[in-house]
Amino acid sequence: MKRWLEPAKTVILCLLVVASFCLTAAIWINQPNFQMIEPAKYTESKPVFEKQLEKIITPFAVVFHYGQDRHTKAVATDGQFSMIMREMPRWIFLDFSPFTMTEDKWREIAREKLGLEVRFRSSIPLAAVGRLVTFREDYNIPLKGIDRIWLYHEPEEDLVYALFFSGEEEKIVRSRTSISPKDLRDSYLANGNQMPEQIMKVVIPKRYTYASPAEKGQTYWHMYYLPKHQIRMHQFSYSYEPVSVERVIEAYFLDPSLVRQIMERDKTMIYTDGSRSIQVRSEQMAMTFTDPAYQQRAVQLSDTEKLQGAVNFVNKHLGWLDDYYFERFRKSYNDKDVMTFRQYIGAYPLVSKGDKPVDTIEITSEAGQVVTMNRSLLDLDSYVAHKDWKVMSGPELYNLIRERNLANTDEITNAYLAYQTLVAEDTIDLIPTWVVEVPNQPTLYIPARSTEGGGGSIGLE
């Protein structure tokens, strides 16, 4: 047995060596079948339309005052308006002081003196206004916000003064300006001379009617303007594109893979990553974003900083799908800051009455941090068609309100033209509409088509 053991070992060793040579040869001769890995394909996101704060807070109208109670108005689609916007950064204001207006002084400046009125949609924080015009560095304006800047010519001094109005506080501050009477008269007012004439409507708070002896020498006029004659507007039809849930999740969550969905009993979908959440109301084509902010310490921010924070938030989350402008800044019942931005088509705001709101973005913030936001998920896409409308003048509107007993016209505090949105299956119709505000009753929405000259019927919808 022993004499066969050594030869057996030799044979096995030889077989192993041969097998090793064969395997080595196979590796050299037969290359593996490599599979090329293709680079990852990314779906390009739709562009986010960002806006600067200066573009969000621009005025909505410029009113030209010519004396003898004659006034004209230019809006954002007019060349005269654009000219004033280009000039505003060159205006310098200095030497500010509180200014008390009596009934006679109001009448003199508003109805008799040459002037130019720049009207904002609501009260704009003072520092934000400073981005549109130039204040001297040492300025001290005792107002929280400004809703009107009124330039007027004082003939006795041959100077142009500016009045800064705060309708919320019912206060006025006056300043000197760098504007020459010649520029006001021969440039600004000359350009606005051919614009549609307006009727100035004055609203005086009742507290001044029953003022105390100390207040008898002062008053405050709120104003709005109605066209003296008929004007033309278009009824538009636009196609629209719903914003997809995928796009919303991508915009509001840092890691979409962590997002889970919950269906409520009313079929409302909630998407959450455990911290933030988005409620999507598919029937309304709208959403609510919620982020339960935890602020370790109170942060003192100005209204301008809060407004800038809201604008930055929209810039980074889905963006401004269409043209929006700042409309209102208010405090909520629990002392949080609520900022509203309204959508515009051209010079006119959108108003929605149905169950599919298209008109506003509303943001609630706490110490500058956004905690909730409501916005539409309808994105106006492309123009489809239009119809030419002849719009009721101010006198026609007031006559209709009286004839139908819709309101006491003496109590109207504001009336303006807007587009009412009607959402159909494939399009959104924008209907020219008079929006009439009356205290202690619902806002009136009156289709603006004139009946004079064969304009067709009008009525409340």
Automatic annotation (TrEMBL):
Membrane-crossing residue ranges in chain numbering: none
Taxonomy, superkingdom: Bacteria
Entries under Pfam families matching the protein: YycH
Domain Regulatory protein YycH: 7-442
Record-given protein name: Transcriptional regulator
Source organism (scientific name): Brevibacillus panacihumi W25
